[in-house]
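Hi support team,

I've been running sequence recovery on a batch of backbones for a student project. Most finish fine, but this one hangs at about 90% for roughly twenty minutes before it completes. I'm not sure whether the input is malformed or the queue is just slow. I've pasted the structure tokens below so you can try to reproduce it. Let me know if you need the job ID as well.

Thanks,
M.K.
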């Protein structure tokens, strides 16, 4: 294949970073030293190299971690190593927000200016940064650092938050929350990152917890501690029951996916297991980028072996030998914890060729990092991303259960969904189905943030009301009144104070034209600038649209423009409201994926229920 390389060459550092990820090149055809006797006779690389295309993202990460950015020379070298044209590699690198294709200083501080952080002083942090360190994206600290605004970093309960990326050997990314002006200056000017505040776990150690029972109690680095607290009982039982019975238990428990779509997990697994040919895959979706959502991060950081055990059960049930965990790059601590836990599980024979000494039960897990793209949480975009492509959703059907990762049958499940499986398998479907209510079985995690006294991650049986949840979180601060609750995240909708008695179930929320989404419960009191919040939501969708289909690519831009015109007070209000309505319908009806289909829901609810932008509440 003619790769159309340019003249730029990779530096020694860049080659070392790529080789550390892909292994040393085997021939001159792959960018290594040319040996005429060997390379003059036959070509190495080609098809075999292209089969390693899925290593493109890990290789780009290796470059970013070591040198900070992806240069033209590095792209040429990667092109040779993987036999992928440089233009295509550039197309992939430029898709993801956390890869830079222009030089950047080795330290990049990403300051969240998304909705929870906006409400918690992110604007003041950013104004202070502009005064002391110059504008966003400009080098500061003598060229050693820069700062940028970021969408939600999944630390909303401790808002405002920041992510510190540090390139260079031996340096690592980290997060700070809540972050102060002084801490931002320290992160920018010194090579140290101030520690993150302790996890907000208001229910730590409570006896009725199921999903969070170990969270905040178990040592996440210790497999022995995990096993002491009931870990790996569920996998042992699954191996006893056999795969068909495990799927039956999950179906009878009526477990529904917690990633937002509420699809029955048992049905998904049965469909993958029923496909005539493997290899099959199971994928844990840990991309969690919905603004306001942080539940999966807490599970990954605090109880990583639970996620690994549950994914192993999923793999066993559908007869898959390979599992993948795709975790967003904004979660460096979760990534590190998981990498350690996977290595420990492998060492203990809980992953590998004979899981728990069962001959013929092979299962292993690869850990992959996203690179700053909300759309990669959509399951088919996630699969594209693992395969080394831009994270653009696929047209469905066919669905991943038959045509998933590398075109093979694949079950994609959310972190929280998987953790529920432990409860079902260990305790039985009957006991599990006894929790919650008719359409919504089991317990649910809620990410409570914003204007409440005790923000944090809460677990309640399905059926508790929104009012009860807010009361558990301490209600609003003294002297403040609740104005609205954003339920379900940016793709969810606003709920008014007179709707607080809604039961938090799939059907209950539907009855008030809302949805549970990813479990976001973000409260706003009378001090919030709700129109600014809604405009930030619109900007989020504009930024995160992958641009593949017109209704969403153009619709999200037009929606944001219309809200700005309304906010300035210079617009024909009625005409703008008609336009917003048309945009909503076009995006909902004609977008390829859920991003476009939900991009107007929060805006619409803000206009219709809260009377913002001149709407009739
Ligand atoms: C724009 C978009 C973003 C999504 N982000 C996530 C995510 O971060 N995590 C997740 O589990 N599901 C996410 N989903 C839903 C997934 O496509 C998929 O339904 C889910 O991973 C399936 O797992 P479950 O059945 O266990 O819920 C997203 C969907 C869309 C349309
Ligand atoms: S709806 Fe938006 S995010 Fe989804 S495929 Fe179309 S352009 Fe991409
Ligand atoms: S961390 Fe800032 S909004 Fe979530």
């Amino acid at each position: 294949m003619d790769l159309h390389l340019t003249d730029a060459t990779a530096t020694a550092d860049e080659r070392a970073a790529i080789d550390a990820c892909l292994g040393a090149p085997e021939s001159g055809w792959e960018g290594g030293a040319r040996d005429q006797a060997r390379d003059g006779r036959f070509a190495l690389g080609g098809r075999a190299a292209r089969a390693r295309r899925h290593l493109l993202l890990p290789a780009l990460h290796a470059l970013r971690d070591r040198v900070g950015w992806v240069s033209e020379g590095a792209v040429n070298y990667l092109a040779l190593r993987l036999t992928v044209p440089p233009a295509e590699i550039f197309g992939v690198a430029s898709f993801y927000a956390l890869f830079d294709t222009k030089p950047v200083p080795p330290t990049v501080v990403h300051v969240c200016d998304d909705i929870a952080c906006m409400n918690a002083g992110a604007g003041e942090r950013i104004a202070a940064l502009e005064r002391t360190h110059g504008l966003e994206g400009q080098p500061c600290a003598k060229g050693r650092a820069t700062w940028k605004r970021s969408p939600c970093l999944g630390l909303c309960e401790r808002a405002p938050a920041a992510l510190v990326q540090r390139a260079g050997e031996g340096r690592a990314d980290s997060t700070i929350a809540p972050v102060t002006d002084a801490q931002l200056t320290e992160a920018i000017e010194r090579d140290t990152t101030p520690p993150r505040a302790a996890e907000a776990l208001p229910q730590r150690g409570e006896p009725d917890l199921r999903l969070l029972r170990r969270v905040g109690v178990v040592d996440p680095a210790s497999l022995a501690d995990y096993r002491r607290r009931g870990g790996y009982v569920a996998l042992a039982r699954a191996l006893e029951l056999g795969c068909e019975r495990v799927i039956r238990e999950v179906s009878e428990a009526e477990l529904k996916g917690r990633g937002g779509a509420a699809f029955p997990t048992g049905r998904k697994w049965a469909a993958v297991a029923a496909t005539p040919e493997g290899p099959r895959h199971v994928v844990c979706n840990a991309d969690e980028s919905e603004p306001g959502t942080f539940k999966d991060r807490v599970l990954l950081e605090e109880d990583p072996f639970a996620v690994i055990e549950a994914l192993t059960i999923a793999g066993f049930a559908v007869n898959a030998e390979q599992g993948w965990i795709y975790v967003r790059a904004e979660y460096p601590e979760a990534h590190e914890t998981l990498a350690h836990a996977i290595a420990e599980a492998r060492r203990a024979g809980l992953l590998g060729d004979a899981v728990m000494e069962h001959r013929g039960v092979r299962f292993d897990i690869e850990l992959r990092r996203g690179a700053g793209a909300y759309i990669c949480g959509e399951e088919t975009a996630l699969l594209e991303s693992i395969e080394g492509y831009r994270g653009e959703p696929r047209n469905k059907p066919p669905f991943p259960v038959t045509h998933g990762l590398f075109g093979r049958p694949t079950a994609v499940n959310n972190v929280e969904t998987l953790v529920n499986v432990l409860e079902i398998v260990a305790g039985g479907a009957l006991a599990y189905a006894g929790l919650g209510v008719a359409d919504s079985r089991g317990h649910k995690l809620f990410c409570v943030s914003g204007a409440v006294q005790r923000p944090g991650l809460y677990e309640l049986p399905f059926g508790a009301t929104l009012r009860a949840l807010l009361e558990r979180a301490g209600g609003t601060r003294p002297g403040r009144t609740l104005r609205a609750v954003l339920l379900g995240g940016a793709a969810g909708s606003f709920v008014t104070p007179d709707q607080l008695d809604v039961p938090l179930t799939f059907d209950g929320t539907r009855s008030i034209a809302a949805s549970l989404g990813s479990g976001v419960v973000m409260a706003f009191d009378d001090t919030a600038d709700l129109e600014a919040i809604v405009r930030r939501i619109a900007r989020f969708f504009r930024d995160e649209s992958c641009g593949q289909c017109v209704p969403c690519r153009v619709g999200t831009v037009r929606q944001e423009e219309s809200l700005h015109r309304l906010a300035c007070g210079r617009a024909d209000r009625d005409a703008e409201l008609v336009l917003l309505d048309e945009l909503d319908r076009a995006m909902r009806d004609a977008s390829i994926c859920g991003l476009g289909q939900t991009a107007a829901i929060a805006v619409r609810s803000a206009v219709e229920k809260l009377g913002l932008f001149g709407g009739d509440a």
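--
Follow-up from support: It reproduced on our side and the slowdown came from queue contention, not your input. The first helix runs from residue 12 to 22. No action needed from you.
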